[in-house]
Amino acid sequence: MADDRNNIASLLEGADEAGSNANQGQTQKRERNLDLILDIPLRVTVELGRTKMLVSDLLNLGQGSVIELSKLAGEPMEVHVNDKLVARGEAVVVNEKFGVRLTDIISPAERVEQLK
């Protein structure tokens, strides 16, 4: 009876170790797979707003002209990666350059919906 308990305990320990090793192997495999794509360049764009113009209006633009955009001041800007919306944010200045502070990341479900 005691031998049976020891055998069962040994089997359970072996299963735990095998499961742990399998999890480590899966993690290492995922990391290797991720390493394959880390150097792929992506085009990141930030959209302040949009508008439509007639060609004649476009030709009349000059230095100092103002183009009115569809978004209101203070509205979040959209961050696109390869033309797919991934986040929204607000304009900030960092070392005298414009930047975007992300305020909302698009959920994976929403990103999948965009692909349809």
Strand proportion, as a percent range, falls in 25-35%
Total helices: the number is: 3
CATH superfamily heading of the largest domain? SpoA-like
Could you say which overall geometry the principal axes of the C-alpha atoms support?
elongated
Instruction: Compute the number of strand runs.
Output: 4
Q: Structural class of the helices, strands and pairings?
A: alpha+beta
How many structural domains?
A: 2
Spans where pLDDT lies below 50 across 5 or more residues: none
Give, in spatial order, the strands making up the sheet with the most strands.
1-2-3-4
Q: What is the rounded Rg?
A: 27 Å
Enter the CATH topology name of the largest domain: Surface presentation of antigens (SPOA)
Gross CATH architecture of the largest domain: Roll
Helix content: 40-55%
- The H-and-E topology, N to C, reads as HEHEEEH
CATH class of the largest domain: Mainly Beta
For the largest beta-sheet, the strand count, sense and barrel status come to:
4 strands, antiparallel
